[in-house]
Amino acid sequence: MKEEEVNRCQIQEWYPKFKSVSIKTLIHELPEPFVEYLLDDSGPFLLPISITNEDALPNRVHNPHEEEDYQVSEGSDDESEQPSSSPPSFPKLELEIKESIKTLGGAIFPKLNWSAPKDASWISTTGTLRCTSFSEIALLFKSSDSLVHDLCHAYDSCSDKTSSRPRSFFLALRKWYPSFRPDMEFRCFVKGQHLIGISQREVTTFYPVLMEKKDDVRTLIHEFFSNKIRSRFDSENYTFDVYVTGDDRVKLMDFNPWAAFTLPLLFTWEELDQEIEVDMRIVESRREVRPGLKTAVPYDYFDTSPGSGWDQFLRNVGEEELTHQNRGA
Ligand SMILES: Nc1ncnc2c1ncn2[C@@H]1O[C@H](COP(=O)(O)OP(=O)(O)OP(=O)(O)O)[C@@H](O)[C@H]1O
């Protein structure tokens, strides 16, 4: 794969051309200090100070110095342990984003050049990627591992890789759709500029309604590809994601490079490369559902294997209980 094929799939590259067939999106170039803030994991986890007083975590300690004082007086009297970092602030970006969120109806879905912070949704107060303020976006972006891919590894599978990152990063604010139906999302696979495969996007669930709609959806997506995508997207091989609305309109959600980091969902890349029995795949019964390919919770949360955090915690609890019992006996 070439860098230019990866670059074409960045939302700031494709969206202006496909705006009329996609969902309403406003795009902001990110200032480099904000990118550095996202990349920096050397210090404590600090959210930017909000100049509009919109806090992503309303119950946290507001004044970071109070937090530091508390830690110092409770913990240690060693002055060298005092935290030195102060929270950053991005007033201009915050105000621009506030304005765009308002234009988009008050709630947005955020994305970086290629990816959304899907793995971080658990940390938001709603458990979704719905954001109403800059602080909520910063919290999701700072907590997401998916975005590390965009920030540092986007070109890792390129044969002509010259850099680990694009020159600029962009924040895409997409109008929030509360009634998005996961059964109507599909990933489409284009090889040699031919649409060879369509897969249900949410592979962890069987949707009986799709059994009836499969043929209609296939026709709608093929027409959409021929009329709106094929001659206008310059790569030979790529994937695109679509959403089919209740009134049978097809909306373009995203482009992704062929193979590499793109999930093949109900196909395998081998099948797609060799075009073996590729057409449209949906989950056809409850027995066929696939395990989640991405979890919404960090692995450490459910890893109980020997040596894991949970294992050590449970051992400590067990030891404490024994000590109590022994004392009581
Ligand atoms: N505007 C929106 N409002 C509400 N939900 C959305 C919106 N846009 C996307 N979603 C939901 O979030 C999911 C992930 O979005 P998206 O495909 O843009 O992320 P991504 O990081 O590019 O994912 P992938 O890497 O799998 O392509 C979508 O499948 C959809 O269910």
UniProtKB/TrEMBL annotation:
Name listed for the protein in its UniProt record: Cell division cycle protein 123 homolog
Entry similarity comment: Belongs to the CDC123 family.
Organism domain of life: Eukaryota
InterPro entries recorded: CDC123
Amino acid composition bias (Acidic residues), ranges on this chain: 66-81
A Pfam family reported for this protein in Swiss-Prot or TrEMBL: D123
One GO term of the biological process aspect: polar nucleus fusion
Annotated segments matching region Disordered: 56-91
GO cellular component terms, semicolon-separated: cell division site; cytoplasm; germ cell nucleus
